[in-house]
Amino acid sequence: MAAVAIFTLGSLVCGLAVSMDTLIAARVLQALGGGGIMVSIFSINADLFEARERARYQSYSSLALMASGAVGPVLGGTLSDLFGWRSIFLVNLPIGILVLAGLAVLLPYRKPHRRPKIDYAGAILLAGAVASVVLWADSAQIFGSLVATESLVVVAFGLLCALGWIAVERRVAEPVVPLSLFSHRTINLMLVISLVSGAIGIGSVNYVALFLQTTTGLTPTFAGLLFIAMTGGIAAGSLWAGRRISKSGLYKPYSIASTAVGVVSLAIFSQIQAGTPVAVIAAVMLLHGIGIGIGQQVPVLGVQNAAARDDVGAATGTVTLARMSGAAIAISIYGAIIGSGLSHLTNQIPGVADFQQLTPQMLGALPEASRAAVAEAYAGAFFPLFLTASGIVAIGLVAALMLKNVRLPVAGKGK
Predict the structure, then answer these.
(1) What is the pTM of this model?
(2) What is the CATH superfamily name and number for domain 77-82+184-415?
(3) pLDDT tens-digit map of 293-326
């Protein structure tokens, strides 16, 4: 409830922001609440349900998270067009209030027997290390090179944060991420899979939208409608896999299937050229969504089953952190690939002075020949992006193949 309240308050301040600095500060507040929500969802599932039954409910939670990630950009764009940018934040107010009321009435209140000792220092140092990785991945665009002086300063700062975090975690009573988690082979593999899941399931969404708008000539609204195919695939894959895992207790086959489908779907995406029929693109998006859905809840289930009961909350938070870190790092990598692919084309297409400033509205106003040239340029720039994404999923496939074929316990029988 505290996390939801913080997120809702952050949304209100975002909607009332009077400057970019205010908006950035409010987004930090909003992110603090959002991080708490992400961890709480899966920790509550672990607290309320036994391992096998949990698989079914985790699939519902994963479905909601991934579907909202696909629908959110479309809904946000529509709200922004109709009511202005502030509406995309203020719409969270009634939703947040409704969720708080539902939690107060419906969620069982289980008072802990002790007061936990929060590892603030570890959390801050870990955040600094992760933020440094993301910033360094973007440093080629920000500072001009991955090895520029400023980039190396970011790397040094990240290393200091990481070393400080390890030192803190070794001595605090209740570390934010117990180092003992990393001694478990299954947990390490699941964290790799979770990083990949974030890079593909979250990180690639905005770039798929950009790909559709620039290579098919679709408006943002119609491009957004194509995400129904991906969202439908996520829903079908997540619900089917959740029920199958709940019945059989096996999760490894679904992780393998998920990553294998991801490798194939993204490889197909890399071959899509300007002018490809929309129906073909929708079919690929459906396949990609099914792949995401099938394996979405596996990392959380695997880590919660492998971790000691007292570490379930921290382990769940670590998986969530890995997923969001994977998304943030991948977004930076994808942006660098697209920027590099388009950098040499400035002023080569009539009517296009700067690709970075080209909006869908500006694209629609270009002559037919210029629009076709832009589509070809973007298709060429996206080729290495989708190949890179396919390679990232291949890493997850290797990790999935290395998992032990563990069977989740039934209620009352322990691990």
Answers:
(1) 0.75
(2) MFS general substrate transporter like domains (1.20.1250.20)
(3) 888 888 888 888 888 777 777 787 788 888 888 8
